[in-house]
């Protein structure tokens, strides 16, 4: 994975110094970003989603998508046994085919990080949701303790949620300061900042929140918790990819994007990979810079992979039930 992002404001061009030094500067910068042509974004995402690819490219795309999966279980009924079984699947997605690649990471609640790490070792990343996931409604002290506990238990990635209430109220400084503080609590762990785009209402808000998170030190920006509908959508992901492209052009820093929630089929995953390729280029076609947050997507990817290898579809009992 790429090296952690610099602390907020560090190594940023001079024109960003004022943007991160005060509430007024932050507001002026964010509202000075170019507006999003919503009709155009929806149309472009839809157009890219119709692209067809050749069989050889499809086989490569399916394996790439598997390597980009953050295999996830985030239910109140999660148990140590369920997490261990999921982690075994993350390491060896298809027990009948050793050529199937491992996933990028497993994503669990903080109290199950130790169980996950005991299975995956250093082979895949262990991501923990933190900061009062999924609502983000807790004191900063609680959020920082949540983060530190997960890192101490073995998480090397933290998925935090922003305070959407503060963001939608225009309290950008509070959101910014919390991201900076959580980034500090992560230590060497990477920070994914969840925007919960389904609650941000407009693509302009998605663009502003993306820039806010990146300026504050995010290593990844993530669409959703998976608990709100709509979750990830192609237009939202397109706008976030444009934001990381423009941020890299301005700062030289590469920031990842994670599309999470509602992506269930190989066809959908390949559509997203096309959007990534056409928007930010092949550099982002790596698990270091693009991820899928999913619980059921992996099964369909495996079934499609088996079909391409054997020429026929396997039944659903050929993959484990998550």
UniProtKB/TrEMBL annotation:
<dbReference type="InterPro" id="IPR013785">
    <property type="entry name" value="Aldolase_TIM"/>
</dbReference>
<dbReference type="InterPro" id="IPR011343">
    <property type="entry name" value="DeoC"/>
</dbReference>
<dbReference type="GO" id="GO:0009264">
    <property type="term" value="P:deoxyribonucleotide catabolic process"/>
</dbReference>
<protein>
    <recommendedName>
        <fullName>deoxyribose-phosphate aldolase</fullName>
        <ecNumber>4.1.2.4</ecNumber>
    </recommendedName>
</protein>
<comment type="similarity">
    <text>Belongs to the DeoC/FbaB aldolase family. DeoC type 2 subfamily.</text>
</comment>
<dbReference type="GO" id="GO:0004139">
    <property type="term" value="F:deoxyribose-phosphate aldolase activity"/>
</dbReference>
<dbReference type="GO" id="GO:0005737">
    <property type="term" value="C:cytoplasm"/>
</dbReference>
<dbReference type="Pfam" id="PF01791">
    <property type="entry name" value="DeoC"/>
</dbReference>
<dbReference type="GO" id="GO:0016052">
    <property type="term" value="P:carbohydrate catabolic process"/>
</dbReference>
<keyword id="KW-0704">Schiff base</keyword>
<comment type="pathway">
    <text>Carbohydrate degradation; 2-deoxy-D-ribose 1-phosphate degradation; D-glyceraldehyde 3-phosphate and acetaldehyde from 2-deoxy-alpha-D-ribose 1-phosphate: step 2/2.</text>
</comment>
<keyword id="KW-0456">Lyase</keyword>
<dbReference type="InterPro" id="IPR002915">
    <property type="entry name" value="DeoC/FbaB/LacD_aldolase"/>
</dbReference>
């Amino acid at each position: 994975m790429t090296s952690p992002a610099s602390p907020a404001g560090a190594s940023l061009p001079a024109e960003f110094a004022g943007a991160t030094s005060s509430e007024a500067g932050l507001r002026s910068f964010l509202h000075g970003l170019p507006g999003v042509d919503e009709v155009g974004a929806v149309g472009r995402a839809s157009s890219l989603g119709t692209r067809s690819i050749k069989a050889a490219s499809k086989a490569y795309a399916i394996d790439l998508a598997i390597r980009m999966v953050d295999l996830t279980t985030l239910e109140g009924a999660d148990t140590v046994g369920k997490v261990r079984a999921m982690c075994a699947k993350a390491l060896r997605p298809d027990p009948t085919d050793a050529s199937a690649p491992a996933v990028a990471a497993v994503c669990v609640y903080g109290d199950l990080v130790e169980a996950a790490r005991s299975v995956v070792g250093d082979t895949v990343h262990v991501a923990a949701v933190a900061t009062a996931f999924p609502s983000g409604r807790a004191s900063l002290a609680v959020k920082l303790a949540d983060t530190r506990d997960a890192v101490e238990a073995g998480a090397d990635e933290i998925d935090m949620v922003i305070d959407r209430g503060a963001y939608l109220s225009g309290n950008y400084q509070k959101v910014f300061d919390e991201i900076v503080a959580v980034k500090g609590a992560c230590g060497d762990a990477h920070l994914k900042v969840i925007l919960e785009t389904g609650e941000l209402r407009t693509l302009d808000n998605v663009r502003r929140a993306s820039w806010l998170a990146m300026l504050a030190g995010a290593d990844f920006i993530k669409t959703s918790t998976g608990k709100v509908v709509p979750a990830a959508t192609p237009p939202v992901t397109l706008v976030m990819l444009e934001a990381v492209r423009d941020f890299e052009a301005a700062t030289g820093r590469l920031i990842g994007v994670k599309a999470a929630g509602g992506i269930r089929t190989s066809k959908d995953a390949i559509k997203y990979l096309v959007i990534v390729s056409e928007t930010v280029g092949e550099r982002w076609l790596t698990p270091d810079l693009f991820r899928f947050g999913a619980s059921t997507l992996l099964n369909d990817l495996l079934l499609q992979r088996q079909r391409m290898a054997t020429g026929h579809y396997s039944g659903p009992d050929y993959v484990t039930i998550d």
